[in-house]
Amino acid sequence: MxxxxxxxxxxxxxxxxxxxxxxxxxxxxxPSSLPRLILSxxxxxxxxxxxxxxxxxxxxxxxxxxxxxxxxLNVVATIAMIGDVAANIGGPRVNVTxxxxxxxxxxxxxxxxxxxxILADADVILYSGLHLEGRLADLLTRLAAxxxxxxxxxxxxxxxxxxxxxxxxxxxxxxxxxxxxWSKTCASIRDVLIEKDPAGKxxxxxxxxxxxxxxxxxxxxxxxTLATIPASSRVMVTAHDAFGYxxxxxxxxxxxxxxxxxxxxxxxxDINKLVDTLVSNKxxxxxxxxxxxxxxxxxxxxxxxSRGHKLIIGGELYSDAxxxxxxxxxxxxxxxxxxxxxxxxxxxxxxxxTLPPPLQ
Length: 360
Known about the structure:
CATH architecture of the largest domain: 3-Layer(aba) Sandwich
CATH superfamily of the largest domain: Nitrogenase molybdenum iron protein domain
Number of helices: 13
Strand order of the largest sheet: 2-1-3-4
Structural class: alpha/beta
Radius of gyration: 31 Å
Number of strands: 8
Largest sheet: 4 strands, parallel
Number of domains: 2
């Protein structure tokens, strides 16, 4: 759908002839016999009427006033990581709404009637796919028949996706934890915005170049910072198996108490097996997640303590949701920096005292 633009026009600021507008000498118009007070009042009133007439635009001029505003594209993203990419690429030409906010688990999310209305009013709908939004999948499929709906991970070569045996034949949907892989979604988001708003092509193209450059710097920061963790401590244990891409990209062994989806419960056998690993490898810390209850992590700490091994919570990581809006962690770049720094410090690595200039 093309955005319509009204034609430029000019203002007209005079209806009366200049000779009338300029006329402010009324003694010749007023009887000299009138009392001075009445004469003064009539003089003031006449000047006021003439001034209003001179300043009021004509009907034709008002109708042709230039419209410099552009209607924003209404973009709806299922998760904030996608919405943040769209906002960076779209800039002022888009209005982005994220269905799922901070602390929300997309695996368990159910659309409310309000969400259905938001989706129905969207010019563009962006979602991850790969079974991340499992309970929304049917609704998104129905909407795709009449609206512009984009699966952002479809632009990534399947050969680059993880498909571990424990995922039962499914791809791992948590692509955003490999920054170099997540940056591949930018081009498809750019293209769908250009399709809906061709007039914004130059802006969308320039913003995509700038943002992918920023993500390249973010990937480099994550690589060099996490590399400082000693080889003996490069084991990362989290509440659920969301950090597989993170481990593969940055050379860490990642273990999750739960599987790919938080819809499943960890068994006592799973917990005991992880405790064995933690104790034998003397892993110093485990991590909780902002969108997942911590009860299974607490079970690991208790199990390790019963075996004489002190295990601490290294910190809270952002996994399936970003931080609060308006905070650094409420952006994709800020979320990744937070996770990288927490993991590095907790496992014995060194975090740079300041961020490199491209990420500040």
